[in-house]
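QA checklist item 7 of 12: single-chain prediction sanity check.
[x] sequence parsed
[x] length recorded as 140
[x] structure emitted
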Amino acid sequence: RKLGRWCNLQTRMMCGWHRDCAFSNNDPNATQLMLDIALKNLENNYSAVLIAEDWDLSVQLLEATHPTYFEGLTNQNAAVSPPYCQNVMGEKVCPKDVAKKKELQPAHRQILKNYCWADTALYQRAKELFYQKAHKCGLA
């Protein structure tokens, strides 16, 4: 039961404080209405959506859509090199590599799909919006 609550935090966050966005004690998972509100907010209230696993393009998009605040960010991002990597539990981790994760086993993916369905749908739409905006900005 708790996995449903934790798994769909992005949907809940982007749904907002509307009464229809509150989780029920009887069913902690997200509802279709929560997802619908979150998708509407994503499409209408965010000037840019960034994707961690495509970090370099995300940085370029942030600079292209908000140059007043992020001018030069692409060059700063390119300057991050191995000397800035950190040793984490005996393994060298670089900022650009943090979003790279191993693939889940199919059985684990199916279990999570039952609980994380709303965040999965929200992510897919965010990814579409990300690449559409990047294309409009001449970046992809």
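[x] summary fact logged: The longest strand covers residues 86-88.
[ ] second reviewer sign-off
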